């Protein structure tokens, strides 16, 4: 409705806005190009002198290309004679270690006297003015060392300290006492082996003498 004093406007009025016009509309699709297109990404710091760029592919079914890293060159093989020399050197070193170990084991392991016996292998019988051999047999643990001992006769004071050297692997040692008898008569004496080192020990036997003229 218009009033007579108002100027007449013959322009058509725009239709009223529909408040439901923007609801349930599909989101517009933005196309960035072909999905199989290859894009080259270059870091900004390397754009002045571009090195080989990492290639990144986009799109379904396109494998990702892994960068190739430089491999270290293979070490050159040693000549056969050098390997032989190295093996021989190792064997000689092992043999030297074994020899030194055995030597130290022999030196550090002490000699031990395990037992001792004294006997008269050949008695005097009824002979006169004879010399009787009294023999002591000493058993050891086979180590090298020195046996210190003395003979004690029933008719004399103990003798001076004597020594007997035994080597490695020697498990027995024979110690001999020569006892001389003179005159007419009958007697029975004793001979005692007294070991002072390395293991204090004693062994005794009887010595008989008979002389009838």
TrEMBL record:
Q: Which residues cross the membrane?
A: 84-105
Amino acid composition bias (Basic and acidic residues), ranges on this chain: 1-12
Assigned keywords, A-Z: Membrane, Transmembrane, Transmembrane helix
Q: Which domain of life is it from?
A: Bacteria
Using the UniProt annotation, give all residue ranges assigned to the region (Disordered). Answer: 1-25
Q: What is this protein called?
A: Uncharacterized protein
Q: What lineage, starting at the top, does this entry show?
A: Bacteria, Bacillati, Actinomycetota, Actinomycetes, Micromonosporales
């Amino acid at each position: 409705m218009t009033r007579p004093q108002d100027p007449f406007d013959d322009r058509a009025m725009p239709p009223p806005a529909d408040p439901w016009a923007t609801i349930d509309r599909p989101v517009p699709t933005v196309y960035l190009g072909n999905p199989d297109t290859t894009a080259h990404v270059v870091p900004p710091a390397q754009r002045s002198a571009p090195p080989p760029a990492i290639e990144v592919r986009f799109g379904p079914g396109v494998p990702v290309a892994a960068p190739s890293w430089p491999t270290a060159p293979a070490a050159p093989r040693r000549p056969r004679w050098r390997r032989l020399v190295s093996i021989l050197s190792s064997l000689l070193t092992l043999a030297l270690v074994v020899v030194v170990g055995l030597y130290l084991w022999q030196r550090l392991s002490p000699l031990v006297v395990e037992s001792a016996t004294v006997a008269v292998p050949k008695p005097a019988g009824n002979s006169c003015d004879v010399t009787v051999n009294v023999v002591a047999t000493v058993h050891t643990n086979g180590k090298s060392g020195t046996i210190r001992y003395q003979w004690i006769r029933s008719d004399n004071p103990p003798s001076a300290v004597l020594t007997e050297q035994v080597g490695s692997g020697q498990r027995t040692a024979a110690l001999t006492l020569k006892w001389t008898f003179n005159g007419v008569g009958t007697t029975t004496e004793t001979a005692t082996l007294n070991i002072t080192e390395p293991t204090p020990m004693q062994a005794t036997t009887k010595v008989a003498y008979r002389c009838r003229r």
